[in-house]
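Subject: Coenzyme A biosynthesis bifunctional protein CoaBC structure
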Amino acid sequence: FQPKALAGKRVVVTAGPTFEALDPIRGITNHSSGKMGFAIARAAREAGADVTLVAGPVSLGTPRGVARVDVKSARQMLDATLAAVPAADIFVATAAVADWRPDTQADQKIKKDGSGRAPTVSFTENPDILLTVAQSERARQGALFCVGFAAESHDLVTHAKAKRERKGIPLLVGNIGPLTFGQDDNQMLLVDAQGVRELPRASKLTLARQLIHEIAQRLP
Ligand code: C5P
């Protein structure tokens, strides 16, 4: 009898895009489908973990046995994540969080004023959820294993290594281009303190299971 790789462990996953409102009708978002994060949540659950999935606006069913918290904005995603990570052993940040949000959110729909002039939107930087969690006491003590993702258009290895160090995390997963938004398969680069390893092209669920295996092996 082999115990499941993550039996007794608690995992928090962020997934999908965020939506940053401009007014009650409109907002800024991106094309993240959430598929990779949902696959990781499913794979973690299959491996015996207790899983919380913090999901931005996506149209995906919740994997069986996974506790899902739906959010819209980056700040809501941060709050839901910070509520869940104090009990967690593993945090996997797959969400494509908007880097900026509009400075202000109008209470009512912004209307054309007849002048022919377009409104101006200015932006404020959003919190970096992964960085915030990675800098927490428990993460720095090694009690919370943090995993980040990187999608880059060029020089993936260089950017992925730099990103891992900047975020101060033990493991970073690079999505090997072209951008995989919405697709069912992916190809990954695993970057850790030892170096770089490739997981060949496969379905997101297959890769998620391999990634969970890699994470389980690295736990203290
Ligand atoms: O810095 P960059 O956005 O390229 O890093 C990507 C990684 O950081 C992903 O794991 C993403 O989920 C996470 N991230 C985050 N909060 C942000 C921006 C990125 O958690 N505001």
